[in-house]
Specification:
Blueprint: H1 17-28, E1 31-32, H2 44-55, H3 68-82, E2 92-96, H4 97-109, E3 115-120, H5 124-132, E4 136-141, H6 151-157, E5 162-168, H7 180-192, E6 196-200, E7 226-231, H8 232-235, E8 243-247, H9 250-260, H10 271-279, H11 283-307, E9 310-312, E10 319-323, H12 332-343, E11 345-346, E12 348-349, H13 357-360, E13 363-367, H14 372-382
Parallel strand pairs: 1-11, 3-4, 3-5, 5-6, 6-7
Antiparallel strand pairs: 2-8, 7-8, 9-10, 10-13, 12-13
Helix pairs in contact: 2-10, 3-10, 4-5, 4-9, 11-14
The structure holds 4'-deoxy-4'-aminopyridoxal-5'-phosphate and glutamine (GLN).
Length: 387
């Protein structure tokens, strides 16, 4: 229930589902396939770089835009993987995770009453960020079974009040990686209506089966209107470090900085040089993340199908979505709230990520960024659903 003193623009936002479900997992001793965080740390040399930074006096305020070596590393990363030319001194802002980058971008660039078109199911911080900015959310629903972007639905969502597109690919929670046709549809709409585009690309390196992520900023007409957001959390398996960034044209990045400086002033200093080193890791590392994660995806998808769920195999991210109806359930929220008692497993109901609650009602999200024995344990526990 909302606090009685909660400002009206935050009404209904409650407690994030990830905190709620992780607390439920701890309380019930369940296997937590809810919140997306790996149970094995990232590269030890990156941890060592953070320790080194802590020990060598990198402990005072970082510059507002982020430490220079991280800004350079982010610019190098954008050139190396996408051929994007980014000026590290004016077109990169380091943030406290992608979450702050999204919130600061919306606060800086959305006027009260502006409409923001976002892919639905949407990551929950988008709804909060749009609400805090006083904007109005306009969802474009990605529908089962394939969760593709329908260009007509996208066009229909845009009105004269629309100023911003908020796009997430690879997409949490569906695992969709937008393909070239879908990206071109976004580009066409953005250019035709002169929209600002904010893209959340935190799963940029977590794609499978040869699907490749390609930033919208690489398309003609997009660089000057796009803020590209990512973070080190998912790529390097340090979700608790909360080192994120936004890149884009200098005027837009400066606007985001104006909001960011009064949210956190600057972001944690000693982890920044470590993430700079991480970004420069060799191609083998980046290949290795996919090689490690794809078999886990397959392991969990196979297990969930074996239990009896309809499984929608994701092209990217940490997550697989299932339909629970083949097992005789139809309300994912109710199902997820009872699952810990029933089986000792925690998952995330899709419906909290939708305005169109019906579309999300039978869908449940599971994370596979866990050790194999943890995934196997979860599947074994879920067999109880068959009885
Ligand atoms: N965007 C999406 C789509 C996410 O799944 C997450 C969760 N990591 C975030 C943003 C937040 O990233 P960070 O932890 O870097 O704030
Ligand atoms: N992004 C993670 C997920 O979708 C969780 C991050 C969070 O707890 N806010 O599970």
């Amino acid at each position: 229930m909302d606090s009685p003193r909660l400002a009206s623009r935050l009404h209904g936002l409650g407690t994030t589902i990830f905190a709620e479900m992780s607390a439920l997992a701890t309380r019930t001793g369940s296997v937590n396939l809810g919140q997306g965080f790996p149970d094995v740390d990232g590269p030890p040399e990156v941890v060592e770089a953070a320790v080194e930074a802590l020990r060598t006096g990198r402990n005072q305020y970082a510059p507002g835009y982020g430490v220079p070596e991280l800004r350079r590393a982010i610019a190098d990363h954008q050139r190396r993987f996408y051929g994007l030319d980014v000026d590290p001194d004016a077109e990169v802002l380091v943030t406290t995770g992608a979450t702050e980058a999204v919130a600061a971008s919306l606060l800086a660039l959305v006027e009260p009453g502006d409409e923001v078109v976002a892919l639905e199911p949407y990551y929950d911080s988008y709804a909060a960020g749009i609400a805090m900015a006083g904007g109005v959310r306009r969802p474009v629903t990605l529908r089962a079974p394939d969760f593709r972007l329908d260009p007509d639905a996208l066009r229909a969502a845009v009105t004269p009040r629309t100023t911003t597109l908020l796009v997430n690919s690879p997409h949490n929670p569906t695992g969709t990686v937008l393909d070239d046709d879908e990206r071109r549809a976004v580009v066409e709409v953005a250019c035709e209506h002169d929209l600002l585009v904010i893209t959340d690309e935190v799963y940029e390196h977590l794609t499978f089966d040869g699907h490749m992520h390609c930033p919208l900023a690489t398309y003609d007409g997009m660089r000057e209107r796009t803020l590209t957001i990512s973070s080190g959390g998912k790529t390097f398996s340090f979700t608790g470090w909360k080192v994120g960034w936004v890149t884009g044209p200098a005027d837009l990045v400066r606007a985001v900085m104006t909001a960011k400086q009064f949210m956190t002033y600057t972001s944690g200093a000693p982890l920044q040089p470590a993430i700079a080193q991480a970004l420069a890791l060799g191609d083998g590392f980046y290949r290795g993340i996919k090689d490690d994660l794809q078999p886990k995806r397959d392991r969990l998808c196979t297990g969930l199908a074996d239990v009896g769920f309809e499984v929608f195999v994701p092209q990217g991210t940490y997550f697989v979505t299932t339909d629970i109806r083949p097992l005789g359930y139809d309300d994912g929220l109710d199902f997820c709230l009872r699952l810990p008692q029933r089986c000792g497993v925690v998952a995330i109901p899709h419906q909290v990520f939708y305005d169109d609650k019906q579309a999300g009602r039978p869908l449940v999200r599971w994370t596979f960024c866990k050790r194999d024995d943890v995934l196997d344990d979860a599947i074994e526990r879920l067999q109880a659903l068959r009885s």
